[in-house]
């Protein structure tokens, strides 16, 4: 590659990064300003930095409580999705019967259904079961929505695992359960990383279903809580922006510590 081409690519990449970072910089400058500061949003207030907006977001907006709710919903949903999808994908990958092919086509069809199209019957069902405004009432629908994609990814990955590994384990005396737990499931780490990333990011940012199912202030997850705080702070946008920045911190910290697994997981998912 010629030097001029490399320079052009570098310039394009830098411009792309700058465009991505501008909204984040504007949010920082707004969140650290006083409510009465009406100066330009492009200049960071080095001489008058205030943390009152973050205090207001925590005390009035309940952002930390919302983060705790989001952590509970995200972790439980992700674990359930990984376990159930791996167990469901194994017979689909190993037994290529006509029934299993029909089940696979059904799973692909379910993936095409928009989540909000089932909102009314889902709401009625949760109301009859007494699950509205509970963690279970949100975790169960989100797990069902994420299962088709996870089953598809696990099925495609399991078909690439040589069957001879399982046959060798059985020759050595392992039963079906031991073969699954000691041979097959440990090989699923790359696709499990992909499923964890896709599921956790979707559940963490999920807004529509959470807004209808978790209506109480104590039960709201992060996205609806920030939206509600934005709506109630029309005269104090700085505090509303501060609440949004606090909500970004958990995912940012998780990405920095798990960056290596994020990249491996996304690359493994791209191959399927």
From TrEMBL:
The keyword Zinc does not apply. The keyword Transmembrane helix applies. Keywords: Cell membrane, Membrane, Transmembrane, Transmembrane helix, Transport. GO terms for cellular component: plasma membrane. This is Carbohydrate ABC transporter permease. Residues 67-258 form the ABC transmembrane type-1 domain. It is found in: Cell membrane. It holds the Pfam family BPD_transp_1. One of its GO terms (biological process) is transmembrane transport. Belongs to the binding-protein-dependent transport system permease family. The chain crosses the membrane at residues 7-28, 71-93, 105-126, 132-154, 183-204, 239-258. It comes from the Bacteria. CDD domains: TM_PBP2 (cd06261). It is a multi-pass membrane protein.
């Amino acid at each position: 590659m010629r030097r001029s081409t490399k320079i052009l690519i570098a310039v394009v990449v830098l411009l792309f990064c700058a465009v991505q970072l501008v909204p984040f910089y504007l949010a920082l400058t707004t969140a650290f300003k006083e409510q009465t500061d009406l100066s330009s949003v492009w200049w960071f207030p080095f001489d008058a930095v205030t943390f009152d907006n973050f205090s207001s977001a925590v005390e009035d907006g309940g952002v930390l409580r919302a983060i705790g709710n989001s952590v509970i919903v995200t972790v439980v949903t992700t674990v359930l999705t990984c376990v159930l999808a791996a167990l469901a994908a194994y017979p689909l990958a190993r037994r290529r019967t006509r029934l299993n092919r029909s089940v696979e086509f059904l799973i692909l069809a379910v993936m095409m259904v928009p989540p909000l199209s089932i909102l009314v019957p889902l709401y009625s069902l949760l109301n009859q079961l007494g699950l509205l405004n509970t963690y279970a009432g949100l975790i169960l629908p989100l797990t069902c929505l994420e299962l088709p994609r996870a089953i598809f990814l696990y099925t495609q990955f399991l078909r690439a695992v040589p069957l001879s590994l399982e046959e060798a384990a059985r020759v050595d005396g392992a039963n079906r359960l031991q073969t699954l737990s000691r041979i097959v499931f440990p090989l699923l780490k790359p696709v499990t990383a992909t499923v964890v990333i896709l599921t956790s990011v979707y559940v963490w940012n999920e807004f529509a279903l959470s807004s209808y199912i978790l209506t109480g202030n104590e039960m709201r997850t992060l996205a609806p809580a920030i939206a509600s705080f934005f709506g109630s702070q029309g005269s104090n946008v700085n505090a509303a922006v501060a609440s949004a920045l606090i909500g970004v911190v958990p995912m940012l910290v998780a990405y920095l510590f798990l960056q290596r697994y994020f990249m491996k997981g996304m690359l493994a998912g791209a191959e399927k």
